[in-house]
Amino acid sequence: MSESRMTVDINRYDRVHRMWVARAVNGIKAEANRSADTHLVAVPLPREWGIDLYLKDESTHPTGSLKHRLARSLFLYGLCNGWIREGAPVIEASSGSTAVSEAYFARLIGVPFIAVMAESTSRQKIALIEREGGRCHLVADPSEVYDVAQRLAEETGGHYMDQFTFAERATDWRGNNNIAESIFAQLALERYPEPEWIVATAGTGGTSATIARYLAYTGRRTGVCVADPENSAFFPAWRDGDPGVRTVVGSRIEGIGRQRVEPSFLLAVVDRMVSVPDAAAVAAIAHLEAVTGRRAGASTGTGLWAAYRIVGELRDAGRTGSVVALLCDSGDRYVDKYYSADWLADEGLDPAPYAARLERFFAGDGLE
Asked: The domain containing residue 51 runs over which residues?
């Protein structure tokens, strides 16, 4: 037989695996179908300002945080890419809300879940992950969690989810009820249906990337602002155009701020960044509880402080419009932290001066 007539047929089709993936994907879709959309909560501002401020309350997801959306997208992405397989564990480097949400979806489709985290992680966080059926693998050096997660995946034949790499590409930014599409749908009957700004915070960068891409895809004029806590690499990297920035210590605001610029944080799509002092974030959530009765984590406070700054700029310029920020998770997870006078004192954080600035802000001053 001549070489030109030779053929090679390699068949790797696995009907059983394909059927399992179909059931798993359908189960995740069904979970989304029976879950109501999260609320868009109006934050009271003086009526004469002519400005509306909203918080997208992501704490109402079944796992209690914004990361529920990310975990759902990451599982669908991993399943459809052939990375997640029946019986093999899913592994993530996370001690926070992402691990809680991923443990939930792992149990939903019937695969083991392992969260790799520092030994210093609070028992409260470990308990939340274990409650959802996950297992926690503790390491002494927090900087090693990425490498340990990858090694565990190789040793067990599992899949390292790697939220920090895949967050921005796993979510369908064109629509499919992503957070940006949901915000605009809920604003449709408001007096300012197209906000001047949407304010996000960044842990992976996936949320800001999704929002920015959706805005560009749908031709919106809305700006994307990312609020960043102390000790985070994102703000100086964006300011200086240097993605190689590293910080010496990590963020005190759980869920946001990183010591390195994660692959999912897309600097080019962010229109503005605001560096927010941690004490200001704590003052913002105390004020939020006072005016709405809602307790939120300090990642919400970081974004809310930046949103108030933008509101003040609009007001001082004599402009009207709306601003949207995110309520990332409930403050009930942080009673012994951001709501604890002892913890604040140990960290050297004094929110009182920023609380006073908020009072002056609502009397007409700026937040600068």
From this structure: 35-61+172-362
